[in-house]
Amino acid sequence: MYKLLKKCGNARRGEFTTPHGVVQTPVFMNVGTLAAIKGAVSSIDLEEIGCQVELSNTYHLHLRPGDEVVRKMGGLHKFMNWSRPILTDSGGFQVFSLSKMRKIKEEGVYFSSHIDGRKIFMGPEESMRIQSNLASTIAMAFDECIPNPSPREYVEDSVARTTRWLYRCKDELNRLNSLPDTINNKQMLFGINQGGIYEDIRIEHAKTIAKLDLDGYAIGGLAVGETHEEMYRIIDAVAPHLPQDKPIYLMGVGIPSNILEAVDRGVDFFDCVLPARNGRHGHVFTKDGKINLMNAKFELDANPIDEGCQCPACKHYSRAYIRHLFKAKELLAMRLCVLHNLYFYNNLMKEIREAIDGDYFQDYKKQKLEQWGGRA
């Protein structure tokens, strides 16, 4: 259940109650594709850095270790020792990212595994069954993520199929939640709005899926080739047509400035691999923008990554030391930078919530964008 607590313009401050706890929104979900954050960050670390929701991947966990293994271990929460909410994406993005190894049919998608090439089939029912085995808090509907730009005729056909898949997802999850041996029989379902960069297709699709009264709604198929301006235009067009009493999730976004702009347009949930991926390569976020710790100018820099930051890296180590760890190829370098970047994102969301609560979000957004100066 989503409860709107406050609005500041279109920016929304809410609480989302789930079977695994209450999520304060806007929120950034920390991405742990294989039930682990890349960079040697544990579920215990996630609690320390203020993570509210962890996100794992249906397709990847289906391959390794296998969703049946996770089920036998009591579901993802027990398996990875994480008590707070987990969202699992449906595998639909792999339809996009593994485009050279798949065939899309009405019944679903035929894949070749990126690991060993073996044949895999996944449709709406299979995706729901895998996610039910994983026992995540929130299951995402199975959809096709369309590359931008795509021909209008293809987008129309794809969106119509995604809608038909959504009905099948809802029916199958309702069936699974009714079974006595289902681990999480209160698993929630989010639908996904698609339509490329065509506003009219997006709006019509939003109106159609809004009638299904799902637990939440995502805007998918963005940050996949279009400009930031096109992305903002689509959010502006779509968000008003999604149910305002449900959370709105912008999938796969993004950089800090994207998040501020999307919050300003009414978005509640975010996720992106970017902070962890950047951290693993020494690129870290600060209040003055992103810096690269591999640069020679940090060799004798005794300052923390970001002055005043309360993350585990900044409280105990210098830029010079972390740079040395990277040069020496020590894994601790990645771990410290990933911890810092995730803390930065989680803390950014906390500050955004406080700004909406305090009616100063517009001033906060303006100040942050000026501070980062395009370096975020």
TrEMBL record:
| EC assignment | 2.4.2.29
EC top class named in words? transferase
Keywords, A to Z? Glycosyltransferase, Metal-binding, Queuosine biosynthesis, Transferase, tRNA processing, Zinc
Q: Which cofactor does it need?
A: Zn(2+)
- Give me the residues that bind substrate, please: 89-93, 143, 194, 221
User: For this protein, what reaction is catalysed?
Assistant: 7-aminomethyl-7-carbaguanine + guanosine(34) in tRNA = 7-aminomethyl-7-carbaguanosine(34) in tRNA + guanine
The tRNA-guanine(15) transglycosylase-like domain sits at: 10-372
InterPro entries hit by this protein: ArchSynthase1/Queuine_TRR, TGT, TGT-like_sf, tRNA_ribo_trans-like
Q: Name one GO cellular component term.
A: cytosol
Q: What is this protein's name?
A: Queuine tRNA-ribosyltransferase
In the UniProt record, the gene name given for this protein reads tgt
